[in-house]
Amino acid sequence: MLVFYTKKNCGLCEEAERMLELIKEDFPIEYRKVDIEQDEQLHEKYMLMIPVIEQEDKVLLYGNIGYVDLLEALKL
């Protein structure tokens, strides 16, 4: 399962989530959405990077996340 770190009022986060949903239409992926503003440690760790997509505690992508980038990172 992927972990998608995001926060409210983040245009890049909204775009990244749209890319995740597009991928889900064709591939069996699951992700858990985590608001970094609900956890001080996560906020400090990711505030300059979000959105962030992690898999097995490894950052796959962050920032401006496109469809092709996501496909390549997930090896789909």
UniProtKB/TrEMBL annotation:
Keywords: Isomerase. InterPro entries: Glutaredoxin-like, Thioredoxin-like_sf. GO terms for molecular function: isomerase activity. The keyword Isomerase applies. Pfam families: Glrx-like. The keyword Isomerase applies. This is Thiol-disulfide isomerase. It comes from Planococcus lenghuensis.
